Amino acid sequence: MSRSQTLLPSLLACGLFATVAAAADDAAWLRSNGTLILADSFDREEDGNLAAAIGNGWNSATANRVPDIKQADLDDGVLKVTSAVEAGHQAHIHHEAGFEDGGAVVRFKLPGLNKHEALTVGFVDRQTKGIHAGHLCYAIISNSPPRVRLTDYKTGVMDLELRKRRQPYLDAKKPLPQDLADLLATKERQFSWAADHEWHTLVLVTEGDEMRVTLDGKLLGSHRSEGFAHPVKRWFSLLMNPSAWIDEVEVWKVK
Description:
With 255 residues, the protein is an alpha+beta fold. Helix content is 18%, strand content 38%. It is built from 5 helices and 15 strands. Strands 1, 3, 4, 6, 11, 12, 13 and 15 form an 8-stranded antiparallel sheet that branches. A hairpin with a 2-residue loop joins strand 12 and strand 13. The protein starts with a helix and ends with a strand.
């Protein structure tokens, strides 16, 4: 049973749908209905700088680009990542997942090592054609501007046809055609948060065509887009731009 099906009768009866939904805890929904497929508290030391150095099944899509530069450091049970400019891409760390509905619980910090920091949390399927690098959907948490964005990349900016059409305008620093801009605007929503350099718990779930994001037990918001319903989220992915710390991760499969 979905979380919305569980809550709907009482919400309609009392007329407090928005209030109750904002207080609902998706972490509890995952733990009550799901199967834990990954748990990591990073209580170990990394083994070198290469793709599998973090251990416990983690891999990096960028580490081997700069094998002599340490981007990921396991320090007293915290995964501390700072992207190397020389890699030409923000650090991308991922783990096998494999679900349709489900999500992740991530304890994170934007440590303030850089003026602009962001953590991207989401899902990838590199076996699906027509999507750049298999990017499906993400929550992007940034401190400048202080916002959290929910974005459907599968049917948005990472769709190869849309990407091909969009890129010349980006290269020329020109506005997108209005129809393309309007389409891409439907693929994401953003929410504000009181950005700081403290520890926070993020919960990101997909249920059908809906993605929801919760921060420290409060539902920030949700968005509906067809790409969120992709049938197999094969990878759980983290991208750091340029710095973010991760203390604990759980990934849950509901369907």
